[in-house]
Amino acid sequence: MKNVYVMMSTDIIHEGHLHVLKEASKLGKVIVGVLSDEAAVRFDRFPTIPMQERIANIKALDLVDEVVIQKDVSYVSILQELKPDYVVHGDNWIKGPLAFIRQEVIDTLKQWNGELLEVPYTYNDQVKRCDQMAKEKLAMPEFRRRRLRQLLKLRPVVKALEVTNGLTGLIAEKTVVEHHGEVDQFDAMWISSLCDSTAKGKPDIELVDMSSRMRTIDDVMDVTTKPIILDGDTGGLIEHFVYNVKTMERMGVSAVIIEDKCGLKKNSLFGTEVLQTQDTIENFCDKIRCGKQALRTADFMIIARIESLILEQGMEDALTRAFAYVDAGADGIMIHSRKKDPQEIFAFCDAFRTKDQTTPIVVVPTSFNSVYEEDLHAHGVNIVIYANQLTRSAFPAMQHTAVDILKHHRAKEVDEHLLSIKEIITLIDEY
Ligand code: SPV
Ligand code: MG
Questions:
Q1: Average pLDDT, whole number, for the chain?
Q2: Per-residue pLDDT tens over the stretch 332-373
Q3: What are the φ/ψ torsions at residue 312 (nearest 5 degrees)?
Q4: Distances (CA, A) of 122 to 5, 21, 22, 127
Q5: Shortest-distance ligand to the CA of residue 161
Q6: Pocket residues for ligand 1 (CB within 6 Å)?
Q7: Residue 34 and residue 11: Cα distance in Å, rounded?
Q8: How far apart are CA 202 and CA 200, in angstroms?
Q9: Whole-number Å distance between alpha carbons of 234 and 258
């Protein structure tokens, strides 16, 4: 009897999976590897049911003889362990970021003369509907909201990308890259006050009000499933903050980050070049406490952002505030810096971690952009936010196009830098 290995990363078993399993069962004993949660989230398959339930659903299928857990996106270690005669997979991984995983499978199987058998990928209406249903489920507020806390347990560093509308939301949702033998993607989305304001041609001074920010969130939510971290600026008046927290929680936002400034807020990257006032510890703790009391779920996170390093108030002040905010109920701490060198961020994280090993630390490496995620993780950072790079890349590209059209009195010269008409009219899927 030959051994046949099939990996399954799905929550919903459809015709396509059954077709693969049927073909596999013609070859011998079918062993299914259920992808672990840790691996599934790297693979853009965020599980909506627990792994034990996924295992039970697959075990219940007549076509399956045995179920094991595949811990990595890569098949290499599980194949080395099982040494199957065959691996069966749909032919949908020949191109795209998963092609290298396929090549690894072929190379590994070669070591014991094993074979990869590919069956035509089924993409009929039922399969499309199942994919759609899985996405719709993930986009529901109760699933989306808790996903950030789930990711904090599953990922060494949760990476969030700035999004300002549906289109940038789709970029954060769908960009998957294979690099140095690993698949990677963004875990979450950051609704930046700077970029949300900039997109409207307004300064980042809390002028774009909450109703407008919620509209942006709604546009993003319409076309994505990943969790949202909202830049809540100062959180405003405590009396207003408690209402906004409830609205965000109900919408399915996962976290709000509020900064300990008061009065007219300016962007932190101005530092002390403009007048900015830091809130008192007492008032800010009160804001955190009231926000926490307004919540109805354990999913939503209120993260306190410390501006002491930005406002040159020193490390001691930053740490004192961090511990006070955690005591007041903050679910995470964001420490910000506008130095090019990440040393003050490292120093803060190291000192904070000597007393608090669990509260998530968030950083925004805009100024200290030479630092790698791995180094931040080594100092105890849990969430890294790429806060404005999409807007900063789009603006010069659009400006050059505008200038070139004016220079040439026609649009031919700019065309080579643009999406083709075919690409732009088919960029967004219709359902
Ligand atoms: C934002 O993206 O709006 C932020 C981060 O708050 S920063 O611009 O660095 O202050
Ligand atoms: Mg901001």
A1: 95
A2: 999 999 999 999 999 999 999 999 999 999 999 999 999 999
A3: 55, 45
A4: 19, 12, 13, 7
A5: 1
A6: 192-194, 204, 231, 267-269, 364, 366, 387-388
A7: 10
A8: 5
A9: 5
Amino acid letter, 380:
G
Spot the catalytic one: 196, 204, 279, 331: 204
Q: How many residues does the chain have?
A: 431
| CA angle 21–27–32, rounded 5-degree value | 40
Looking at per-residue pLDDT, the higher value among 12 and 290 belongs to: 290
Provide the residue type at 324 as one letter. Answer: A
Q: Are 383 and 362 in contact (CB under 8 A)?
A: yes
Confidence of residue 145 (pLDDT cuts 50, 70, 90): very high
Neighbours of ion ligand 2 (CB under 5 A): 193, 231
Is 204 among the residues known to form the active site?
yes
Whether residue 44 is predicted with pLDDT greater than 80 in this model: the reply is no
Instruction: Report the distance separating Cα 177 and Cα 290, nearest Å.
Output: 41
Q: Which atom of ligand 1 is nearest to the CA of 257?
A: 6
* DSSP secondary structure letter of residue 386: E
C-alpha 115 to ligand 2 mean position (Å): 53
Question: For residue 194, which atom of ligand 1 is closest to its CA?
Answer: 3
How far apart CA 49 and CA 22 sit, in angstroms, is 24
Token digits of residue 141: 């507020």
Model pTM above 0.85: yes
Nearest atom, ligand 1, residue 366 CA: 9
User: Helix, strand, or coil here: 383?
Assistant: strand
Domains and CATH numbers, the chain: 3-128 (3.40.50.620), 140-387 (3.20.20.60), 393-427 (no CATH)
Mean pLDDT of all residues in 119-131: 88
The alpha carbon of 39 is separated from its chain's Cα centroid by a whole number of angstroms, namely 14
Burial level of 392, CB count in 10 A (0-12/13-18/19+)?
Answer: middle
Q: How far is the CA of 385 from the centre of ligand 1 (A)?
A: 10
Tokens of 429: 């899927």
CA of 192 to the centre of ligand 1 (A): 6
> Atom 2 in ligand 1: which residue has the minimum CA distance?
192
